[in-house]
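Q: What residues go here?
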């Protein structure tokens, strides 16, 4: 899907794409389920609103949410201006789709994706706009073919937007955005990655509006082919209480990252966002243990030794 700004404003074109993306993702994931995603439409007092599509206690997805939001405000929160301090305090408008899926089966990985468009304005000054987003995978039991497929799909989504000079170099978008993802989804207090990464970008406008928007669309469109084949392969594998216990333990890392580091979560809470929609990413069952490590030679230990490491997957 590409943008058409001849008949709509740039913001309208982005909003139309995001609503369509939300609907397509719900349709793609819904084929595995025995119940529909619920719909929760909401309004924000300061301006704007959104649509949260949620599933809980599904056959395949223990909890998942695909949220669309289009919100605005008069005073840009500090988290949104972290890389551009000169625009702090401006009026702002943000729209995006964000999702997290927590499958019931421990062999099926958690996945996160978001794509967003941000504009900050001030009287007498040119608007500042950018795109951001990405997708990343958090397995509990690693399968190399799954991670390679996920990264290959991410790479292929970005390849059309590389200049000829940048192709096959570290300046290409995939290696840049992969490093950004590895650095961003890292729990500094644990000194470990949250998962096996993917791609992540923010404050992106380098290609001009049309091509930057097209790149964001390519990233959003990559989610379904990147994740659904993995989910289909793993969702019916047999498992026991040991695997569920380890899944709950590792989900604790997901909670820690989202509440301590995640820029989107912090922006949402700082801007007076809707708490239920912001925290729909939280897993339903989580455990913590004091100073615990898996026994050497176990499948649980392999997650740490073979997957939660810096690695080039494609």
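A:
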């Amino acid at each position: 899907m590409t943008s058409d700004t001849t008949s709509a404003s740039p913001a309208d074109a982005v909003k139309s794409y995001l609503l369509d993306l939300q609907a397509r993702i719900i349709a793609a994931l819904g084929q595995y389920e025995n119940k529909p995603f619920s719909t929760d439409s909401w309004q924000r007092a300061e301006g704007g609103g959104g649509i949260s599509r949620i599933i809980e206690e599904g056959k395949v997805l223990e909890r998942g949410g695909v949220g669309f939001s289009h919100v605005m405000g008069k005073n840009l929160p500090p988290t949104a201006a972290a890389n551009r301090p000169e625009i702090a305090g401006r009026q702002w408008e943000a729209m995006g789709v964000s999702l997290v899926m927590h499958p019931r089966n421990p062999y099926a990985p958690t996945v996160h994706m978001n794509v967003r468009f941000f504009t900050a304005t001030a009287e007498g000054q040119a608007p500042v706009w950018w795109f951001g987003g990405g997708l990343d995978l958090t397995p509990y039991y690693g399968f190399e073919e799954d991670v390679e497929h996920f990264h290959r799909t991410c790479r292929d989504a970005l390849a059309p937007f590389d200049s000829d000079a940048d192709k096959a170099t570290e300046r290409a978008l995939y290696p840049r955005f992969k490093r950004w993802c590895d650095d961003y989804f890292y729990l500094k207090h644990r000194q470990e990655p949250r998962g096996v990464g993917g791609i992540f970008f923010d404050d992106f406008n380098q290609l001009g509006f049309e091509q930057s928007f097209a790149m964001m669309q390519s990233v959003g469109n990559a989610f379904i082919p990147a994740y659904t084949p993995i989910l289909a392969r793993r969702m019916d594998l047999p498992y026991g209480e040991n695997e569920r216990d380890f899944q709950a333990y590792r989900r604790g890392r997901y909670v820690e990252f989202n509440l301590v580091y995640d820029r989107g979560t912090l922006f949402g809470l700082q801007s007076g966002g809707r708490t239920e929609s912001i925290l729909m990413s939280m897993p339903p069952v989580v455990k913590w243990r004091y100073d615990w490590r898996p026994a050497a030679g176990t499948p649980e230990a392999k997650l740490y030794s073979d997957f939660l490491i810096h690695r080039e997957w494609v």
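A: Context that may help when evaluating the design: Strands lie at 38-43, 48-56, 61-73, 91-103, 110-122, 125-138, 186-187, 192-193, 197-204. The first strand starts at residue 38 and ends at 43.
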